[in-house]
Specification:
Blueprint (H helix, E strand, L loop, with lengths): L1 H27 L8 E9 L5 H20 L4 E9 L4 H13 L4 E4 L8 H10 L3 E4 L5 H4 L5 E5 L2 H18 L11 E7 L5 H16 L4 E8 L4 H15 L5 E4 L2 H13 L9 E3 L5 H9 L5 E3 L2 H17 L13 E3 L3 E3 L4 H5 L3
Parallel strand pairs: 1-2, 1-3, 3-4, 4-5, 5-11, 6-7, 6-8, 8-9
Antiparallel strand pairs: 10-12
Helix pairs in contact: 2-11, 3-4, 6-7, 8-9
Length: 353
């Protein structure tokens, strides 16, 4: 009998100690409590080589860490990133994989803005909100389900600002017209051939220059698919065809502007024979080249603010909160303004990098 009480008493004391230890651990925060919410954000990007989208991706990861820390561990955010190598079918498979692996919100930079239906159908079936960003899908597709959103900037605005920069520079530097024919011989390096932003950006930029009384003479429009390497190759071909007669190069993004500069520098041309170059995005390397006088201007695309907007929507949608406080157009879209960057204000933007 004594042995019975002795053994069971020990068990009873052990049980009490375990209960006390559990209470202590919970109160000290070392045991995960049930009110911790876990947002798993799946991010899919059209291609790994895009400098601007790398900036957005890096900022999304930084935002996840910052918001997890400041939430007092009540909200934990993890980010999983996939790159689609410019193939929509690969991107569709990546979205399916992210959903299967527990992602409960998606941020999608579409490969093909006209082909989002597989992603939309998977998201709707699994009730997973999707924030499309940077490549704006057709409005009809965006309205197919109430869990779809868009964050980006307006292509027409970027083209208009690029055109205005050109006008200001050309009026201040008449020496750009090297052959003194009263016209500026120019080439354009566009993004994808049927990409809406590339078309709108190009048209608005050219029309802005013409509307301000600068005569232009088009030498060539080339498609370089937003790629630095492709732009370098295209520029080499253009230099073979037109040589020193190219006075202005308009690029739909900064990666291509860097490719143009690569082609010029590898030919060991004198700086005075360079055409003037304008890009779009505000990549750090281009900002440095503007400061050096190698590139004349770009249009700052605020990737950090766009990433912040994407994360705002992701968190609120995940928590089931009202999105009306986010100043969204029709409750669906958020647009961030572009900004002009020239030699006069480039230091302001370099300080943001």
């Amino acid at each position: 009998m004594k042995s019975f009480f002795k053994n069971n008493g020990r068990r009873f004391l052990s049980a009490l100690l375990m209960i006390a230890l559990t209470v202590c651990l919970v109160s000290c925060g070392t045991v995960e409590t049930s009110d911790v919410k876990r947002l798993k954000l799946g991010v899919v990007i059209y291609d790994e080589g895009d400098l601007f989208l790398k900036e957005i991706t890096d900022e999304l990861i930084a935002q996840a860490k910052k918001r997890s820390k400041t939430s007092g561990e009540k909200l934990q955010i993890t980010v999983s990133v996939r790159y689609a190598r410019s193939k929509q079918n690969i991107q569709d498979d990546q979205v399916e994989d992210l959903i299967d692996n527990g992602c409960n919100v998606l941020a999608v930079n579409l490969v093909d803005r006209n082909d989002p239906m597989d992603i939309i159908d998977m998201a709707k079936k699994n009730n997973i909100p999707v924030i499309f960003f940077n490549r704006e899908l057709v409005l009809q597709d965006l309205n197919r389900w109430n869990g779809l959103y868009y964050v980006g900037a307006r292509a027409a605005q970027s083209g208009q600002i690029q055109g205005q920069e050109c006008v200001e520079y050309l009026k201040q530097h008449p020496e750009v017209d090297r052959n003194h024919d009263g016209k500026i011989q120019y080439v354009v390096l566009r993004g994808e051939i049927n990409h809406q932003d590339a078309i709108i950006r190009t048209d608005r930029s050219i029309n802005t220059i013409l509307d301000n009384g600068i005569p232009l003479d088009k030498l060539s429009y080339e498609v370089a698919n937003w790629s630095r390497l492709q732009a370098e190759n295209k520029m080499n071909q253009l230099l073979e065809s037109y040589g020193n007669s190219i006075e202005l190069v308009l690029c739909n993004n900064d990666d291509m502007a860097l490719g143009v500069l690569d082609a010029l520098q590898k030919r060991n041309l004198s700086r005075t024979s360079y055409p003037v170059i304008f890009g779009v995005d505000g990549a750090k390397e281009v900002l440095s080249d503007i400061k050096k006088g190698l590139i004349q201007g770009t249009v700052y695309n605020d990737g950090k603010t766009q990433a912040d907007k994407v994360m705002d929507i992701a968190v609120r949608a995940f928590e089931g909160k009202d999105l009306r406080g986010l100043s969204m157009t029709d409750g669906k879209s958020t647009y961030v303004d572009y900004q002009k960057v020239t030699i006069d204000n480039v230091d302001q933007f370099l300080s943001l990098k």
